[in-house]
Structure formats: structure tokens, C-alpha cells
Design goal:
Distance between the termini: 80 Å
Structural class: alpha+beta
Largest sheet: 9 strands, mixed
Number of helices: 15
Strand order of the largest sheet: 2-6-7-10-1-11-12-13-14
Mean pLDDT: 89
Strand content: 15-25%
Amino acid sequence: MPTYETIIGLEVHAQILTRSKMFCACSADYAGAAPNTHVCPVCMALPGSLPVINRAAVEKTILAGLALHCTIGPEAVFARKNYHYADLPKGYQISQYELPLCHDGWIEIEAGAQVRRIGITRAHLEEDTGKLVHLAEGAGARLSEGRGGYTLVDLNRAGVPLLEIVTQPDMRSPDEAYAYLVKLQQILRYLEVSTADMEKGAMRCEANVSVRPVGQREFGTKVEIKNLNSFRSVRLALEYESGRQVALLERGEPVIQVTMGWDEAAGRTVVQRGKESAHDYRYFPEPDLPPVVVGRAWVEEIRARLPELPDAKVARYVAELGLDPREARLLAENRRVAEYFEATVTAFENQARAKNLAAEGWPRAVANWITGELFRLMNATGTGIEAVKPSPAALAELVGLVAAGQINLNSAKKAFEVMFETGRPAAAIVQELGLAQVSDEDALTAAVAQTLAKFPAEVARYRAGEQKLFGWLIGQVMRETQGKGNPAMVRRLLETALKTTNGG
């Protein structure tokens, strides 16, 4: 039997963050609204209504295209894509076909130990559809059970700007498709083009998958999979469908080009309908909208708004700040977290200069605080970075107290928990809780002597060669100082005492 490889291309639809819809003035923020309350004659397709292009949606599409290394065409034309669903009030969708805003781009993903470049065929602008709500008669009944039912139509979503991003068939495994979606979501969020939240429907994915014997140049028959509403669903659906196609070919049966749906409960793909081709949609230019002329000056103005993207941030954090790649990726994953980190580093450097402290190497300490204590408390409380109470300057002050030797790390963690809960400054908390570090040599010498007197058996075992007890003894001295002892001084004084005191 031949060995098969999987060929995958993805089509992603992401709702664009704008105040109004694509072709009318209705609010695009319909979350939680009563059905059919964010509607007007345009998005309800009432006779005589005419669309007007949303400039902000065009600019955000161009911004996304630039981040995806696309060519921005000099002109884009809207077209009517004709198909008849109950949630499509006009009987067609206004989209782009022959002349999209953006084309021929790419995204790089990490696939195992390799970096793979995934080609972007096009990124174009269109409008979203409404939403259907299927209800059945009788509690718990399903329409598929043959009992009577009905479908409701909510047009709040109809007309919301939608960015469609279509890849080349460049992915070779479900894991690569997963990595692509994670990277794309991250970029869209960095740009603030979309929330890209799949679970809330702000980003939807359709996959095209085929298989072919390894070494064969021609593609196999392509099958489209719809109803993928999470990264996990995409991975599972691709694994199942590629396995289904291989099984067909090994039995000598053909793969039929169809549109499949993903049944999450059953964990399998199911046939929905025959696959449409472009000519089935009867595209033609939208007669009610002019072409969008994209001047070079406009493109460069939009390019100037591009933030530093995650890959570039990671490279800079490693090269300039001395972070390890894993830590750098954690910080760069979320734009707001990255901004919080960079603001904290800047604030610490400013404070260090004012107090004549050495600032070199402390970006790593700041990174450790954010990826360690801050992330731990955020996860434990379900707090987003935007709602974190300690400001970057406040965290920098705490790190500075550690750097100056005024508190030790354990005391700093206790203080930070109070800071996280209350937003109060570090110095006030340290003073109130009595967390200032003990660096008085006489006091620490007494604590060491008391510890050695309390644990003569452990001291004897240490001197007999059980070196691992040294760390335990340090812990006992720190307990004697209520966790406030200067760790470096405690270590030095304990080493001296163990060498000079023989217990007899």
C-alpha cells in the first residue's frame, strides 16, 4: 500500500472591529442585543435601499493584508455572490471576487523543528450573513427526530464587515493547520482588526483537504469541511477526514468532491451537499458600489500604523533584552501583555538610574515576575491584563526593592499578592506588613546559631557528608527570620558557622 500525504488549505472568515456595519450605519456591536434590533432597510435588503462602503473596514483589511505580506492592488471591486439561504436577506452576498483588496501573501509557522511558509492567495472584504436559530416543538425535541419545528432568523449580524483569508494548499498536517490558525489569530488581535474569537463566532474556519500518494504531483479530490468553531475542531476534523479519504482509496473507491460538516458529538465528518464551484455563485460586479481605488499614499499611511508584530518582538526580546525564546514568546503572545512588560522594563530602568542601581540584566527579572507571579494570579482570578491593578511603574518599584536588597524574593511575592488585590504601592505594603529584609549581620548570626542549636542531629549528618541538608538548614534559618533574612548573607553566615563550629 502507498503512503499518503495530506494536503490542506484553509479559508478563514474574521469579523472586522468597526463601529458600524459594512454597508450601513447600524451598530456592528450586536453582542447580547435582542434579535433584529441592529437592523435597517439596507442590512434587511428592503427595496430601494442602497449600500455605502465602510472606509474603516477597507483600511483594516489593507492593514491585515500588509501584516500578511500581501500585495495591495491598485483597485478592488465588490461583486454579488449569489446563493439563497434564509439568513441572507438579499439573496446574494456582497463580496470581492476578481479584484480583491489583498493578494499573494504569506505567514510563517513553526512545524516541529522547521519554519514553514504558508502562502496566502487572497484577503478580501465582504459582509456577514444573519443567523438562523432552529427550534423544535416539545421540550428536548430535535428537528431530525421528525417532530414539527421552526426556524427563526436574526439579522443583527447581517452586514457586519467580514475579512476572508484564503491560503494556498500548503499545509501538510492537522498540526500545521492548527499552528497557522493560532498565528493568524494572534496577528489579527495584534492589529486590533478582529477579536478573532472562534468560540464566539468572530472567527470561523472552513478547511479544504485531500490526500495523495507520497511522490505524486497531482492533487487528490478536494473535500470542504464546514462548521469548525474551535481550533480543536479543526484539528480533529482534519485528522478524521484525511483518514476517511485514505480508507476509501485503499478500498479502491473514489473520493467524491462534496461539502462536509463536522459533527462534534459524533467526532466525524458528514455530507452536507455537493461542492459548489465559482460559476455556481454567478459572480458579477456590484452595480450599486463604485470600485475602491487604492492609492500608494493611502497604503503607506496605513502601513505606518502597523505595530511591531509577534515574531519581530520575540527576536528583539531575545537579542536586545537577553530573554530566552520561550519566555519571549510568552510575553509577545498578547499585545497588551507585551506593552505591560515593556512599560515595566522602562519604568525600572528610570528608577534604577535615579537610585544609581545597576539596571543591566533586570529585563529578565521583570519577565520572570510577569510570566510567573502575575500570570499565576491572573489565571487564579480570571483577570485579563487590562484589569490588572498594579501599574507597570508599581511592579517596577517592587522589582527595584528586590534589586536594592530592601526585601527578599519571598517577601516580594507576599507584597505582590496584596498589590494585585488592592493596587496599593509596594513600599507602603512592605512597611505595613513588616516585610523589610533583615540584613543586620549580628541578627542573622544569632538566627544561624539558634538554628544549629535546634538541629544538632541534622548538623552532624551534614558534617558527615550529607550535603543536601545545607539547603534544608538555609530554610530553617529563613524560618527563624520569618522569611525576611537576606538570602545571600544567610548562606554566607551559615557556611562559616558550619565550618568553624564543631558542635562539641
